Amino acid sequence: MPDRSYLNWPFFDDGHRAIARDLDDWAAEHVRSIPEANEETVDAACRNLVERLANAGWLDHVVPGAQGGRREALDVRSLCLSREILGRHHALADFTFAMQGLGSGAISLFGSEELRSRYLPGVRRGEKIAAFALSEPASGSDVASLTTTAVEDGDHYVIDGTKTWISNGGLADFYTVFARTGEAPGAKGLSAFIVDAATPGLEVVERIPLIAPHPLATLKFDGLRVPKGHLLGVPGGGFKVAMATLDVFRSTVGAAALGFARRALDEALERAASRELFGAPMGELQMVQGKLADMALGVDTSALLVYRAAWTKDCVAERVSREAAMAKLHATETAQKVIDEAVQIFGGRGVVAGHPVERLYREVRALRIYEGASEVQKIIIARQTLAARAAEGDAKTPSGAPAPQGA
Question: Are the C-beta atoms of 92 and 160 separated by less than 8 Å?
Answer without folding.
Answer: no
